[in-house]
Amino acid sequence: MKATVMHQAGDVRIEEVPDAAIEQPTDALIRITRACICGSDLWPYKSLAASEGIRIMGHEAIGVVEGLGSDVTSLKEGDVVVMPFASSDGTCVFCRDGLQTECVHRGFFGSGAEGYGGAQAEALRIPNADGTLYALPTGTDESLMPSLLTLADVLGTGHHAAVVARVAPGKSVAVVGDGAVGLCGVIAAKRLGAEQIIILGRHADRTDLARELGATDVVSERGEEAVEKVRELTGGFGAHSVLECVGLDQSTRTAIEVARPGGAVGRVGVPQDASMPGAQTSFYANVTVGGGPAPVRAYIDELLPDILDGRIEPGRVFDRTVDLDEVPDGYRAMNERESLKVMVKP
Ligand SMILES: [Zn+2]
Question: How many whole angstroms separate alpha carbon 331 and alpha carbon 343?
Fold first, then answer.
């Protein structure tokens, strides 16, 4: 079968790899009908060393179940399923707490981890299928698939940032980052009743979309100027809730500095540095800083109805669709900021 293989930074190829197959009785085999390229895929695209080995890419997908291990009970062949970016058994103490991304059996798709393939491919083996996959209602409208695909990562991740940042009715919210996760953070903040939603971003086409999705203010400055601007917009004190959707040192520092005393920062941008900035700033302002890989599997129950009813349209983050052979050009386009988020239809 064909899959997306990253060899090293800047070198993504479509190659023949061994067919995905059932290996464990708890596995499912899915044929990928939609996948996408994630902003986090751009980190290895910028930095993967050849010595780290090849990586089959992709961790967001919708697919059709084509095979099931003998122990899988909740799925049947032909089910159309959402595949969250991490697998989870659905039964351990963390899964029962709704934190499937800390599952004792977790594994990240498209990460190069042993036993985990990637979703930018024709097919994929899904470990712990009962806990991992989410079957969509039968007959789901094809036109909703782009929005449903965001349940695999970016919508659930933006929602997680909002939950960790304690977004609630009447609150002021700052969203740091105008990528797909930041835009989904705007959707999530509006959905949770935020009164003011400030997006920090520098790409006019993206901040324009953010306004359409619910942002009330745009701050295009960076660093200290951005902090000043957010304070001005929030009565001088900063935002109650801040969503950090980038993962760089500078963006994390800004996120902590724009939080008002007693506020909270939800971090979902994959951190690119081992240490976290803003320790003293957050300490002296009693700012809570939390976050991590979003348990998107847990959030599907809550977010799916709003997509099915058309109340939210997170699929608007996709601005390009490619087939498998065009995936390398999709990476190039996203890396050069020519495209916001690329959908893949194998
Ligand atoms: Zn678990």
Answer: 11
Amino acid at 265: V
Residue 247 φ/ψ, nearest 5 degrees:
105, 0
DSSP letter string over 241-277? EEEE-S-SHHHHHHHHHTEEEEEEEEE-SPPSSSS-S
Quote the ligand 1 centre to 92 CA distance (angstroms): 4
Centre of ligand 1 from the C-alpha of residue 282, in Å: 32
Instruction: Please tell me the distance from the alpha carbon of residue 228 to that of residue 219, in angstroms, as a whole number.
Output: 10
d(CA 248, CA 246): 6
The tens-digit pLDDT sequence of the chain (346 residues) is: 999 999 999 999 999 999 999 999 999 999 999 999 999 999 999 999 999 999 999 999 999 999 999 999 999 999 999 999 999 999 999 999 999 999 999 999 999 998 899 999 999 999 999 999 999 999 999 999 999 999 999 999 999 999 999 999 999 999 999 999 999 999 999 999 999 999 999 999 999 999 999 999 999 999 999 999 999 999 999 999 999 999 999 999 999 999 999 999 999 999 989 999 999 999 999 999 999 999 999 999 999 999 999 999 999 999 999 999 999 999 999 999 999 999 999 9
Bridge partner list, 121: 3
CA angle (8 as vertex; 3, 9 as ends), nearest 5: 110
Query: Which residues make up the environment of ion ligand 1, defined by Cβ < 5 Å?
Result: 88-89, 92, 95, 103
**Token pair for 192:** 């949770």
Q: Provide the 3-class DSSP secondary structure of residue 3.
A: strand
Measure 261 CA to ligand 1 centroid, in angstroms. Answer: 35
Q: Are the C-beta atoms of 319 and 188 separated by less than 8 Å?
A: no
pTM for this model (two decimals): 0.97
CB 186 within 8 Å of CB 209: no
